[in-house]
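Question (not urgent): is this output format expected?
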Amino acid sequence: MASQRLRNKTYYRNRELSWLEFDQRCLSEAKDKNLVPLFERLKFLSITSSNLDEFFMIRVASLKDQVSAGYTKTDIAGMTAKEQLEAISLRTHEFVKEQYSTFNRSLVPALKKVGLNLITNYEDLTKDMCTYLDRYFEDEIYPILTPMAMDPSRPFPLVRNKSLNIGALIATKDGSEPGLVKSDKKKAKSGSKEKTLEFATVQVPSVLPRLISLPTDKKGQQSVILLEEVVKKYIGKLFQHYDVICACPYRVMRNADFDLDEDEAEDLLQEIKKQLKKRQWGEVIRLEVADDIDKRLLKILKKEFSISEDDIFRISGPLDLTFLMKMYGMAGYDEYKTPSYKPAQVPAFIGKKDVFEAIREGDILMQHPYQSFQPVVDFVKQAAVDPDVLAIKQTLYRVSGNSPIVKALAQAADNGKQVTVLVELKARFDEENNIEWAKMLEKAGCHVIYGLLGLKTHCKLTMVIRREDDGIRRYVHLGTGNYNDSTAKIYTDFGMFTCNNQIGQDATAVFNMLSGYSEPDRWNKLIVAPLWMKDRFLAMIANEAKHAKAGEQAFIKARMNSLCDPDIIEALYDASNAGVQIDLLVRGICCLKVGVPKASENIRVRSIVGDFLEHSRIFWFCNNGRNDIYMGSADWMPRNLEKRVEVVFPVEDEKLKDEAMHVLQTEFEDNVKAHLLMEDGSYEKVDKRGKVLVNSQEQFKKEAWDMIPQEKSIIEKRVFIPAEAPETEEEE
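Got this back:
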């Protein structure tokens, strides 16, 4: 009966609306004038825009597919797909208004104050700027542009996903029929004559920089203008002998979610290539237009894209705010940015040329990006050239565009090592990149696996098999994040090196499962999804409830990206009712509700949004004082626990356990970047008035360098000086 009660829909939040709350937290950073530097605020506003794009292309698209298919089953919060779309439409329109209010009323004026003027109105251009743009358009832009008209001989052109375009209505100057083919036309009055209107569109070229720097004015102020504004201004040059009646930027978002029928796809690589091409021309699910668009032009776009009014977003400002990331990267404004951070060396590797020697001395735990990712790269590089290394096995989910790890694997194969690499071709938005790497590795002589049928391989695992004096030894790296040297500088993740024999045996079993579909009877140390992990987590949660009922020490502290698995949430509710104190750090989606009587009265949830993306997964179970610590690649989501190959590993060395527990404790004390989940599903910043500020990310930067005294002076000291928070925060 308790289980039935706790599975009631009123105890759960909708996944999609919870995700939108995460984007709202990013937006709150963009609005924070007190503690976030101006250019960092630009970065956060850009992130909200790219986040929303992906949300529509994948999540909204999936819901629309469900509605089209007549799917009426409700989610854990009791909402049908149709109800979710209605709620999402209302919430996202409000959100976009808030984005552009922040942009127009706060950021643009603030930029002007520091000497950077973003010009959005041509009337604000000086004579010198106009002269400069005349030449720039003729020399750089005009040769690339391709105007496309629509008439009976030329149907409405295909508009690429996320591309920026200028739509226009044009008419011949003398009022005669435009084009080479006569047809029925729309009429527009001009004086006493009627003009025949045609639709035309121009794609803003993505091969050119979107931000155009202009000559400085007399005061020496730097000004920039957006490429689409220039194209719009000079669009008449593309349609000689025509009047441009109106012109307006627009942008479409298409369904980018695709389902693979892996049973029918004889060659998974070729099938994914085919689906990637379709992504550019999927169903239009969102249309963005300038808020002053001509009604006649909008009517054409609405009809041609077969889009409803609810899916049209009228924008008060530049479309696609991701250009703000380019502004963030402009030189000369370092004082308005958080000082760049150089990762500290990992103490265990300092003074050691041989990574294998360092690992033999004991397990090594690394926290990126506070500590360097270079040891992971060196691990593979050294294995590639070490004559005693016999084989390398690795899983790759997302890698950088110029990955040193992939190059090292290719070199290892060239050197005669046996190299097995699982490349996950289904890693969303990295499919094309991974296909290219897979081809390259195969050509180099690596044995490339494309994953298991129907499952994504998301675990982060590398194993090096080496012949040594006392026999064969397996060296293993396990991580919470991807083998991507670029994102390792901006994502917070943990990695652990070990040559523990039992973990080595388990790692071998994982790779055998991936390449040969064998399932081991038991695991020594690792917890593996999709067959074993969920039951293990449920058992550990239930174990805490058992300790609490017996009056013993019991608590759960966990950090993850998302929490939406109903079985896990139900188990947490049961544990809370038993008296288990539960503290959760959930960066993104959280379908659990807090403060629900007889369900979650002992559960607290917070989210940290900082300069680095919180990405690691850590699970701390008190277990009556034994303090069991696990890390890995899996969130508490159905897809991770039931539809992916995931690995969670134990941290057993007492010193390393202390490090992991300290990280969680510090994050639960954060009062600068932390947001608390409220009972109504909203998030609020921690009240920090009169308190010493605790910024966990800055704290970890300091601690990483404190472990290397001789290098400590490299770090910017201002970042770590505690300060009193302002008594009140200025309203936006």
